[in-house]
Amino acid sequence: MYGAAVGDIIGSIYEHHNIKTKDFPLFGEGCRFTDDTSMTCAVTNALRVYASLRDAGRPAVEAYKKELQAQMRYYVRTYTHGYGKLFEQWALTDNPEPLNIGYNGAAMRVSTVAYFTRTLSECDLLAGLSAVASHNNPEAVRGARAVACAGFLALQGNSMESIRREVEERYYYDLGFTLDSIRADYKFELSCQGAVPPAIVAFLESTGFEDAVRNAISIGGDSDTLAAIAGGLAGVKYGVPSDILAKALTFLPEEITNCLRMPAGNILE
Which domains does the chain have, with CATH numbers? Predict the structure, then answer.
């Protein structure tokens, strides 16, 4: 489940210093994990609570919704780098109400949903709820659901073309462009509708994990988030090469390493 974190780390130094090439050092000076990784862990821990209750035949959805907010607020307080101001203020507020924003933060944290769900409808539900926990906007929900759907289909062994077609038909994104066609003019995009399609296409055009991450970063924009989304999907399909993973783990604290590797404790009482 490390794909999103690895993409986030590699892309972190290019977010404000965009490059328009696939030729760059994977782990450049100053790399670090950001909110994309922290929030992936928050969603992952909430998914563990959900799956544990579901598998025991107990009501799970309401517990999942409560745990999502608890985990997000915990990770914002514990790992403070990279959050948008609105989201950070939300997380630091007592009893926060979801924000009506369609930002890409809802989509960059859902790649692990594929590992915890048994059907595409369950995947769709949990991804949507993960967005609504903080980003109560139709575009945020659509973006999260589309990314999770692509991951679920990849985990089931579907072809790239069938993944493309299913995401387009379900979520009304146009994925018929190439990265080459947008690279020169692509700009920084906070919105899901501006970030999710190119991130998914970066995955769909890939030949392996590293290639997916290089694809995402090569178009510029919100590089760590694009690479987290593409890396999360690529991790599901290809796995993360052991040498790349070993290097990435040197940037992660033990709690995050353990969250993405093995069951972690939950906050919900």
Answer: 3-261 (1.10.4080.10)
